[in-house]
Design a protein that fits this description.
The complex is a heterotetramer, with two copies of chain A (319 residues) and two copies of chain B (257 residues).
Chain A lengths: L7 H8 L5 E4 L9 H9 L5 E4 L2 E2 L1 H8 L3 E6 L1 E2 L9 H8 L4 E4 L2 H13 L4 E3 L6 H4 L19 E4 L8 E5 L6 E10 L4 E2 L7 H7 L2 E10 L1 H4 L15 E4 L17 H10 L3 H12 L5 H8 L1 H7 L15
Parallel strand pairs in A: 1-2, 1-10, 2-4, 3-5, 4-6, 10-12, 12-13
Antiparallel strand pairs in A: 7-9, 8-9, 10-11
Chain B lengths: L5 H11 L6 E3 L4 H13 L4 E3 L4 E2 L21 E2 L2 H8 L6 E6 L2 E2 L5 E2 L2 E3 L4 E4 L6 H7 L2 E6 L24 H4 L7 E6 L2 E5 L6 E6 L5 H6 L11 E2 L5 H11 L12
Helix pairs in contact in B: 1-2, 2-7
The chains are: A alpha/beta (319), B alpha/beta (257).
Chain lengths: 319, 257, 319, 257
């Protein structure tokens, strides 16, 4: 097995190309694969096709930096810091991105179907709503590349005569899944602490899996407790060592979200000039986590450092 | 000036709608306060879970997001979306979801996606998240709304989450197995749905307002004939809310007055 | 929340009735809920409708004791100790039970669909096979009680025009799931060590969940590490303390399967008289695990005691 | 008498069919030996997994069942059936499943369920287990058979697991995305499938037998024109199998002679 441990630069350069369909791991303010996302921006990847359930900070950055052409999503926001993501909102209103709306369960089921090789998956969720009635992607592009022929279909339950209508959803098999995890074994076994969101399904559904992680540990060590592990080593194509790699979002047991940074981002996100200055200040100059963290500074990092018993930073000023 | 805020009476009122052993699907903000109120006062055995996968956390600090690391501590199980969202429709449980929305119609259908259309978008909200799922699958939903004319509309700009659809038996006929909105808790009062028509009516108004004012702030014709005045929050409940649930007033916001 | 901790006698008496559809946890020689199963036999429950993927020792006992009327399964055997279960084989040939054959993936997907509230679930597995062409249950009983109207249906992929044929399966929502786990918190949070088979899906799909366990631990303790937990407390209806409750099958980290007992069982299972004597000797007299274990004896229990590093009994004579 | 048993040459021969980086779906018995042989000799980076959820265990002791606690140790992940069986069809991986059966036909379709019919059952085998899934979804399967006339049949009593169906392109036309049997390893030789017709032919026969004997033990017409004699097992491979893989001969059975 070839060595999978590499820099973000190499992982993004090797595995991500313009136009790829990309699943972002994490959820709003937690475990966003920010280190990889910043590298995507540095490498100026274009026309990305994001598939997410509820995404926040990472998606905001990619949209703002002009890397995104198209999104399938259930939710675009950074929790209380931006109930609707400013850059998502702006791109949607300016029609610089195409958006297709699903629900969280629908997106999760689609990832799961992709992960399990199911031809499609069905749910009662969304019947009669505009999610099943309105279509964001133009008919011209449907069925091309990764874009499914049908957003979804409402059919009669084919096996239970009393089952009524159901929503049938196409599976998702993204080109690349980007995940930030706490631990990776040297051969690629991944362990996520706390909630896994839909990261595991996203990784299993994808053709290529890039995992950034807080720590790389010996494969023997991570295999001493395989009940805790989230992904088998052979699923993973690239491991990127990235301590604090989810900053300014949280990483359970390692650090909390960074309210200072997220509040600052909220301000600068409302204007393209200030957002561009943010890229110049926070994204372009720092290829390594070391350099980025030097910019963040010890003071803020110590504030968000997780308490070992709680997994977050108790008493953190989150206003 | 009342000695309590609208947010405070909303949290306490919504919390009182919960029964013991209910399984509560909570978002953040008001729904988190309401769920905590419910557990501390009305329904000690109620269980709170989050769509992100945190099942029954200890909630020693108030989470500001459903993906807040604070929902991962003291839980019964830490799982993920697939697991958590599957609980919503479990026929064994009375699952109650607290939802917010940008628009609501007279049957409790919700919009949290956008104003305008995909072709001519005017405003964008975050989207369904788990709201459509909860509205589709849960035993019942309780909706939080700011009571404004432009939010209580005749026709939603975008229909994100199914309520009673077009009323009467339309929800069951559409293929849903159960569910439907139980109540709408606003900054002015509590609205419920007629047993037969499933149309919204004013059930309670807060002491600082009146049914006519509420009707004027509602964009569709509202039955106010059944409205009762709500009692002000009890002293001890208000104290508990302020001192124990959100002492930093992260969600409660400024004190009254 | 009422107290869920109870004896096997009370759990079976309260929650299982004749004719119930029952999912058995475990797999061939591992974590069979034997203590509960023996109690079902003592209480002479009849006409049970088993739904399993690959089941072994527990199913053999229930069939042999005449408790079973009908089974949906993928596999009936006790691994090398009885590649096809003798009592299953005999009941099948004598037509004293009705059997419907599925595959392991199909059964697992059906449990999963039941657990997730999906109206149905689809797979490519089994196309053109007799699993989709032949039906074990008589047409007269189909659609009655828990028996699905259709074993399955082969349809064209409704959402992907190039998808071809797919097998659509009905979900399973058993009346009762019987699970043997390593740990239960006092309020019902369950932790399974090692492989979970389809136990978690079975429990979530069922109306009633009975869990026997090696140890009951304080709920606070089991919640200190919720990443490891398998079932939320409110899913579980009865917790039955049962140290060695899976014997003679294995329980990872606690004990290995008991080759002496399984080899002995293999012999007695081939004849109804000797099987009846087995019931008289091993099942009817012992309502408590203490009494049952006294019968097994320290000698055999020490032989199968798991090594703490390995989870099984290294060097165990397994011939 | 040969200085090796049929079981030994079967395990070694099947193991040699594995490529490096293959993901091996193993049952127990012979398939476990073959997988271990593959990893130790031909394909050190091959990965072994079990349908029960044990992914790449260290296998310090030979498991006697796919649910043996020995498949839960040193694994990359301990999961369950849903997870493990999902790996079979993953398009990213060359998944190879080792399967046994009671009957096989000339297109490699398998019966591991029963003889007779549900109405008039004559014999019962365990059933599909994961065999139908592996045969349906994996990149390829390798089948172990006892080479007996009554097992190599014209028509299966019960069609449990899909091979090449009725040959030619019928497998793809039926809706399968990939897969099909690659080889059948018996106690007499190795059979493969014609590239075009997908009909079984004799590829190799062991040194202690001959093509005509094999044809006589095959219940359908067998092409033996392409048969080559197989070399006897190499000394070092036999030694490794006996001393390291199954020293207790739990699966290998008695020594030769």
């Amino acid at each position: 097995m070839t060595d999978k441990i590499m820099t973000a630069r190499k992982a993004v350069d090797t595995f991500i190309k313009d136009g790829d369909q990309i699943a972002l791991g994490g959820f709003t303010v937690n475990r966003n694969p920010m280190h990889i996302i910043r590298e995507i921006i540095r490498q100026k990847k274009k026309k990305l096709y994001l598939v997410v359930h509820s995404h926040g900070q990472g998606m905001e950055l990619l949209i703002g930096a002009g890397c995104v052409e198209r999104i399938e999503l259930a939710y675009g926001g950074v929790a209380r810091f931006a109930p609707t993501g400013y850059l998502f909102k702006k791109a949607f209103k300016d029609k610089t991105i195409e958006v297709e709306d699903y629900s969280n369960y629908q997106m999760t089921l689609r990832f799961m179907a992709g992960a399990m090789g199911l031809p499609f998956i069905a749910t009662k969720s969304g019947l009669e709503s505009d999610i099943v009635r309105k279509f964001g992607f133009s008919p011209q592009i449907r069925g091309k590349g990764k874009i499914p022929e049908h957003k979804l279909k409402v059919i009669n339950d084919p096996i239970n005569e009393d089952g009524g209508k159901v929503v049938v959803l196409p599976p998702l098999n993204p080109d690349v899944a980007l995940i930030h995890a706490q631990y990776a074994g040297e051969k690629g076994t991944i362990r996520i602490n706390g909630l896994s969101f839909a990261d595991i399904e996203q990784a299993k559904a994808a053709k290529t899996v890039i995992v950034s992680c807080e720590e790389i540990v010996p494969e023997d060590y991570i295999r001493q407790d395989p009940d805790r592990n989230s992904l088998a080593h052979f699923i993973v194509d690239a491991i990127v060592p990235a301590p604090f790699g989810a900053h300014p979002t949280a990483c359970h047991m390692y650090y909390d979200y960074d309210p200072n940074h997220l509040n600052y981002f909220k301000k600068i996100a409302q204007n393209q000039d200030s957002f561009n200055r943010y890229l110049d200040e926070w994204v372009y100059p720092f290829e390594t986590m070391e350099d980025y963290l030097t910019k963040v500074g010890f003071k803020d990092l110590l504030k968000i450092k997780a308490n070992s018993a709680l997994g977050y930073a108790p008493g953190l000023d989150r206003r | 000036m009342e000695p309590y805020t609208a947010t405070e009476i909303m949290a306490l009122t919504a919390g009182s709608l919960v029964q013991n052993n209910d399984i509560l699907f909570a978002g953040t903000g008001l729904s988190m306060l309401a769920a905590t109120v419910a557990k501390r006062i009305h329904a000690p055995d109620a269980i709170v879970f989050f769509e992100t996968g945190g099942i029954d956390p200890s909630l020693e600090e108030l989470p500001l997001a459903v993906a807040d690391p604070r929902v991962m501590v003291g839980t019964s199980v830490n799982s993920g979306l697939a697991d958590a969202l599957s609980i919503l429709g479990h026929p064994k449980f009375r699952t109650i979801a607290f939802l917010g929305a940008a628009q609501i119609d007279c049957y409790g259908n919700l919009n949290s996606t956008m104003l305008g259309t995909y072709e001519n978008p005017e405003q964008r909200f975050p989207g369904s998240g788990g709201a459509c799922d909860a509205a589709s699958l849960a035993y019942g939903i309780i909706v939080f709304m700011q009571h404004e004319y432009r939010r209580f509309v005749n026709k939603l700009d975008y229909f994100t989450s199914p309520g009673w659809l077009s009323g009467y038996n339309s929800r069951r006929e559409a293929g849903f197995l159960r569910g439907g909105p139980m109540a709408v808790v606003t900054n002015l009062g509590v609205l419920k749905f007629d047993d037969i028509t499933k149309m919204m009516y004013l059930d309670q108004y807060y002491p600082f307002t009146d049914p006519e004012t509420i009707a004027l702030k509602t964009g569709f014709s509202l039955d106010i004939s059944r409205a009762k005045k709500c009692s002000p929050p009890k002293e001890d409940e208000l104290k508990m809310l302020r001192q124990e649930v959100d002492p930093q007033r992260l969600i409660l916001g400024p004190m009254p007055g």
